[in-house]
Each structure stands twice: as C-alpha cells, then as structure tokens.
Amino acid sequence: MLEKIKIYFRLIAIAFRSQMQHRASFLMLASAHFISTFMDIIGIWVLFDRFKIIQGWAFEELALIYGVMNMGFATAESLARGFDTFSQIVKNGDFDRILLRPMGTLLQIASREVHFMRIGRFLQGLFVLLWSCKQLGIPLYSPNFITILFAYIGTACLFYGLFILQATLSFWTTETLELMYIVTYGGLESGQYPMSIYNPFFKGFFTFIIPLACVAYYPIAALLHHETFSMWVGAVAPLAGIIFLYLSCQLWNLGVRRYQSTGS
Amino acid sequence: MKPYIAILNTRMAVLFQYRSAAIAGLCTQVFWGIVKVMILEAFFAQSVSAEPLSLAQAITFIWLGQALIQLLPWNIDKELEAQIKTGNVAYELLRPLDLYSYWFFRAMAMRLVPTIMRSIPVFMFAGLFQALPAPESWSALIAFVVSLLFAALLSSAITTLVHSSMFWTISGEGIQRLLPQVTLLFSGVVVPLPLFPDWMQPFLNLQPFRGVIDIPSRIYTGVIPVVEAPYYLGFQLVWFLFFAIAGKWLIARALRRFVIQGG
What pLDDT score does B263 carry? Predict the structure, then answer.
C-alpha cells in the first residue's frame, strides 16, 4: 500500500513538472479559470442583491457552501482528469496496454494525467470560503472549522467517485457520457444552494443516491443552525462522500473484469 | 450569394448527424431548467416589494434561455482552429470565395442546427409539463420570430469575429475558457437581466450579448410591448453590423500580412 502511494505521488510530481515547462501558458489558463468561475458567483450575488435572503440563508452563509463545493470540485477535477478523459482510451483500445502493466488499473489511470490549472477554481473557492468565515466569525482554529475541512474532503471524494463512475460507464457505452455532466457539473451548480429549497424527489436523490447534500449542505446547515438535527450528525455526514468513493472503486473493478477490447 | 447558401446547406446536413448528442442535451437542459425554476421560486417566496419581473415571467425567461442556449456564441469551430494552427487555411484562400462570407455562413450553420435540435424538444417539454405560456399576442409571436433571426445573425457575426482573431492568438484557449461564462451571464441565461441590480441596467442595456437571448425573451413575455419592438430589433441589427464590419476588417488585415508556414 505504502509503495503504491509513493508511486502515485511520484507520478503526480512528474506531471506537475511537465506542465510547468509551459509556465506562461499555465498562468494564462489558470487565470482564465479564475475569472470564469468568478462569473458563477456573480450569478448568485445578483439574486441576493435583489432578494437579500433565500429560505433564511444570507449571502455570507451560502458562501460557505459555495466555497466548500468549489474547492472540493476543483480538487477532484484536477486529480481525476485521467478518469474524465478515459472513454477515449477505451475507444482507442489503449486500455489493453494498461492491463498488461504490473500495477492496479485505478492507480495507473489516476496518475495518468493531472490538470493543475484547475487551481484557478480552487483559489476562488478558498477566497470565498475565507471571506465567509471572517463574516460569520468562525476562527480558523476551532471545531467548526474542522467540520468545514471535513466537508471539503467529503466533497472532493464524492466528485472523485463521480468521475470514476463516469469512466466506469464507458466499459458499457461511450455514447451517453454527456448525461454524467448532469450529476457532476449539475451537482456542483445545484449543490451551491441550500438543499431545503428543492422538492422532496430532488432532495432524496441528492441525499441517498448521490450523497451531495451529505458532504456540504448537512454539515454546514447544522453548523449554522439551519437544520434541527444535532451538530454531530452533520459533522459525520461527509463520511458518505468517502463511502461513495469506495463504492465507485468497487464498481470500477467490476467493470474492468467485464472489459472486452475494441482493438485488434 | 448562391455558393454561400450551398455552404450553409451542406454544413447543416453534416451537423444534423449528431442526434444522440441532442438527446443528452435535452436531458441536461431540462435538469438545469427545473433547478433554476426551484431556485427562483425560493427567492421570490421572500420577496416583499414588486420586482421588475413577476415570478411567472421569470420562469418563462428560464425556459426560453434553456431552449435557445445553443444560439449563444459560446464556442469556436474546432475545424477552423485546426486549420489556422496547421496553416491549412491557405487552401481556403484558393477558393473563389470571400473568406469572411464563407466563415460567416459556416458559423451560421454551427449556431442554427444545435439550436433547432435542442429548442424544439425543450419547448415541447416546457409547454406540456412546465406550463410555459404562449407569447403575449400574435404580433408578439411575429416580433419574437424576427428577433430570433436577428439574434442568429448577431451571434454568427460575433463567432466569426472570434474566429478571425485566431490569426493572432493561434490557440484561442483563453478565449474558449471565458466565452461560455461571459455569454451565459450577459445574455441573461444565468439570471434574467431585468433582475440584475438597478445600477447595472444602463450598462446591461447597451452590451451586445443581450441581443441574443434577452431581447427575444422580453418580446415573448411582453416585458417589451410590441409597439416598442422595432427599436430593439434595430438594436440587434446595429450590433450585428458592428461585428460584421469588425470581422471583415480583421480578416482583411490578417490576409495582408499573413505568412503561411510549411511547404
């Protein structure tokens, strides 16, 4: 296990160095990313400017969810890049080569490609999160902040799991992958608002099937006393994201077993 | 004119092949639409004063935005990008065609086909299950259709201007990242423009992207009365002419000084 982790970090470091070879282009793309995610929060701010509040949530409270969601998504998006572009590998028949190597498939795909310019979105999320903590008076060394940190880890794991799931689907079909954007990008977008505003079907879907509500909304709602359940229920809810990631890995292994090559 | 119509037709025939993408697109748009409607309902529930749009009007704006989303000048033509990168664009110059008009009609096909494939099912869904109302009146419907045509012209001209600028930027990757966000926000798809803060309205009213989705939506919902529609149609045309002239000028400039790579 330790050996594997070592190899993973080594390959990531190599990917990082190779992307740093084109420093100017990296900086430009990262800042384009930063600006483009900034447009997202303008869309939310505009509505708050007019309506002030959404179901009892003020803008600075919502900013907490927004920050956690975007940091988690950016982390998963940059680290799971290999899974995001995986359908191409299946189409080309390149997966055969990966099967031949003396290493697990998950580890190989995970370290195949890393997208560091997504740091733009991450920084923007961090910026919003810190601003929100300051407005709400949450100190950086407090149990509350640890809850937020745990929510971030849960969110990153959940989205990573979704990217693995998307890649796993391509063992069966490479045509309908666009539908997965509904739960990845769509999940990010809808998860930025309090889950309580959505209808029960939607809320149930994002609690029990894809536990998006568990990783960011429940812990933060408990922390800010917007839901009635006790603090510790919210604090452990992000575990659902980690479990989801584990289950996606199991499903991936199932998919690998039934893989049939397209190549000749 | 005839060769350009032929370009439009053949490009449209090619693009109509991507039908499975259209089905996936329909699901995506329906999902977005439902989420956005729930968000707006939650916000309007708190509203104490009169807003510039009623909730029903705002919901109509959302569905029109989802139906017409592909009309936005939000992406670039990958084939043209590759041609400029490899220098193959030189072959295009051998054709007895005006390069600007050729690219303009290509861009037009790239906007019209996805719009047709996506808007019809989204309109049907919204009309059947989401109670999307019909336009205010018959004359509003006619004005809406005309404004859509002008929106298509405007959007194609913006896209062609972006394509022309790639003679200088080569990859256009930075632009590709920013275009979707900028066009979605300023055309009013993210949030209907009338709901933006009042102090931003003078700026929003003058910028070109509102010509693509905001103006047709306002005519459809009657926020703009039909008698005032000609002024807004003129607004679309003026921006269209601006982008067309700028694009033509940029291409002429590029062709005067451009050096073809490779042999």
Answer: 46
- pLDDT of B192 > 50? The answer is yes
Q: What is the largest CA-CA distance in chain B?
A: 70
CA nearest to B175 within chain A: A32
ipTM for this prediction:
0.87
Which of the pair, A23 or A217, is modelled with greater confidence?
A: A217
Interface list for B 243-262 with A (CB within 8 A): none
Listed by start position, the domains of chain B span 2-256
A53/B46 touch (CB, cutoff 8 Å), yes or no: yes
What's at A259, amino acid-wise? Y
The DSSP code sequence of chain A is: -HHHHHHHHHHHHHHHHHHTTSHHHHHHHHHHHHHHHHHHHHHHHHHHHHH--BTTB-HHHHHHHHHHHHHHHHHHHHHTHHHHTHHHHHHHTTHHHHHHSSS-HHHHHHTT---GGGHHHHHHHHHHHHHHHHHHT--SSSHHHHHHHHHHHHHHHHHHHHHHHHHHHTTT-SSSGGGHHHHHHHHHHHTTS-GGGS-HHHHHIIIIIS-HIIIIIHHHHHHTT-SSS-HHHHHHTTHHHHHHHHHHHHHHHHHHHT------
Dump pLDDT digits (tens) for A60-94: 999 999 999 999 999 999 998 888 888 888 877 78
* Residue from B30, B61, B117, B190 whose CB has the most chain A CBs within 10 Å, to mutate: B190
Q: What is the pTM of this model?
A: 0.88
- Express each pLDDT in B195-204 by its tens digit: 999 999 999 9
- Quick check: helix, strand or coil at residue B57? helix
